[in-house]
Design brief:
Largest sheet: 6 strands, mixed
Strand order of the largest sheet: 5-6-4-3-7-8
Helix content: 40-55%
Distance between the termini: 64 Å
Order of helices and strands: HHEEHHHHHEHEEEHEHHE
Radius of gyration: 26 Å
Number of helices: 11
Number of strands: 8
Strand content: 15-25%
Structural class: alpha/beta
Shape: elongated
Length: about 350
């Protein structure tokens, strides 16, 4: 059509159809846009949840919208950020023609990144490196041609998706690095298990009837919340469960691999609950499965007292690894993260929080 009528360049999509089909085509394009936007929104929710599970984003409020279907989720803050970004893009660019550069850069670079990631997955699955390099290399060459063609539009709007991607990547890396520094500091403060058990046996505290669960991010050592609680209150439940939530690289974990027990001593048992990165870590369901074990029988997860730590991060610049201003950014993200009890689905009536301050 463009070769026979160059003036059709003004609106080639709608001019493909006869005049009487113009408004039906507008409706058709609108419906297609809604469908495509819903796919992007759902993908943003899923990727955000997986990033949280893998430790690259702080905990956020995740709502499950279907009781019988896994993966049907809604994350309010992601929805509002998408809305704000979309409105800002419309106001900033003003027309779909001006957005063409941004769209071209985003799509072409997405194709190239997807090809690289597909190659990594194929190598992880055990395919021959030569076959992977040949097949994915051919696709990558085509993708890079599209990237080079769209690179000329970098200053005509192409910078916008790159800026958004850079901001998101920077926040994810800041959270990941800050969390590792925080865990490094907490590991130095944790009491070794043998030392803690010896302390409890040498100075027996008052043992309360029932069971308590203390959440910990580490797979060894005694949680700071437990030592802090025992040192100041001098009481300890008869049964104590140290709950360690582990996120697997697998998307989902079967019930037979969900729970692992590590006896500690003095009525204390470490319970390791493993969840896939596409699963929401429902601790109550995991503990119900764990309490079927002979060693934990008689414990009702709905009667347990759950102890959570409320960590206040103090940026000090004393720990190498991040600039102080990034430490302040991490502290703000940590402060505004969703509370662990709400994220793990623990009833608020069974929660006790222990406050701690940690310098990084």
């Amino acid at each position: 059509m463009l070769l026979s009528d160059p003036s059709a360049i003004e609106n080639p999509f709608y001019l493909l159809a006869p005049g009487w089909a113009h408004y039906p085509m507008v409706a058709f394009a609108t419906v297609a846009t809604i469908i495509a936007s819903q796919a992007i929104i759902s993908g943003a929710y899923s990727l955000t949840q997986q990033s949280i599970q893998l430790g690259f984003l702080p905990r956020m409020r995740v709502l499950h919208t279907a009781s019988l279907v896994k993966g049907q989720i809604y994350i309010p803050i992601v929805n509002w950020l998408l809305a704000a970004g979309t409105i800002a893009a419309v106001i900033m660019f003003g027309s779909s023609d001006a957005l063409g550069g941004a769209y071209g850069i985003a799509v072409s670079m997405l194709m190239a990144v997807t090809t690289v990631l597909a190659a990594l997955v194929a190598l992880h699955w055990g395919f021959s490196p030569l076959v992977v390099a040949t097949v994915n290399g051919l696709f990558l060459v085509v993708d890079l041609v599209f990237v080079a063609a769209n690179a000329t539009k970098l200053w005509e709007g192409g910078w916008f998706p790159l800026l958004l991607a850079g901001v998101v990547a920077f926040l994810m890396l800041t959270w990941r690095t800050g969390y590792l520094l925080l865990e490094q500091q907490r590991s130095r403060l944790r009491q070794p298990e043998d030392e803690f058990i010896g302390w409890v046996l040498a100075n027996p505290p008052i043992r309360l009837p029932g069971a308590a669960a203390i959440f910990t991010a580490a797979s060894s050592g005694i949680p700071l919340a437990l030592t802090h609680h025992l040192r100041h209150n001098r009481v300890l439940h008869e049964r104590v469960l140290l709950i360690n939530i582990v996120s697997s690289d697998a998307p989902r974990i079967g019930p037979d691999q969900r729970v692992r027990f590590v006896p500690v001593g003095a009525g204390i048992t470490r319970v390791v609950l493993t969840f896939g990165f596409m699963e929401h870590p429902n601790v109550i369901d995991g503990l119900k499965l764990a309490c079927r074990d002979a060693g934990l029988r008689g414990i009702d997860p709905e009667e347990i007292t759950y102890y959570f730590r409320r960590v206040m991060v103090i940026p000090s610049g004393k720990v190498p690894g991040m600039a102080v201003w990034r430490e302040r950014l991490f502290a703000a993200m940590h402060l505004n993260a969703n509370l662990p009890a709400a994220y793990f689905g623990v009833p608020t009536t069974q929660v006790v929080e222990v406050g701690l301050e940690v310098e990084i």
